[in-house]
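Worked problem 6 (solution included).
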Amino acid sequence: MKLTLIKLKGGNTLAEHREFLTRRLHSLLGVIPIGIFLVQHLVVNHFAVYGEENFNKAADFMHGLPFRLLLEFVVIYLPILFHAILGVYIVFVARSNTKNYGFFRNWMFVLQRVTGIITFVYIVWHVWETRIQIGSQGADYSLMEGILSSPFMFWFYIIGLIATVFHFANGLWSFFVTWGITQSPKSQKIATYATVVVFLALSYVGVRTLITFAYGV
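Solution. The predicted structure is:
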């Protein structure tokens, strides 16, 4: 009887340890490299606000990077796919900690999952339009202008971009908690304000760029 209990206890400890490591890896991938790439991508695209020529120069620079395809797969596509798979695992298999948080944070928990699905769909479609369909030819101003000239695609991109930025910004809060950076209620509250600023700033940069592509202003 005692031996059985020890086995069960050991199994639970192992499962908890595996869940702990899974959550850490998931949060780390969301910030490094995916989050860093998101910020860089939004900043490069924002060159469109300063004119077609400026955007094309920035896009050509990124397109001409050595080992670009290898970097895209290793730093972008594979981490995003792995992050998405881990996210599904966490939602349906791992235990949640929503009981430890209040009403607001529980809503953020739900929105994080919803925006994760929207973000994945948005990224897949965006990569298809701006990478796979055009082959080795790099995306330029005229391509994005043509895509966003459609009102439906404009709003699809607006919703997708805002969902992606929210998922990243709110994910930063979870990253701080998961890695033990913010442990006290006060530090978590400060992190909430900081991530709201990140969300608003990146949303402005992204939406402003989309408006320029769609309407030339």
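Discussion: The chain is about 80% helix and 0% strand.
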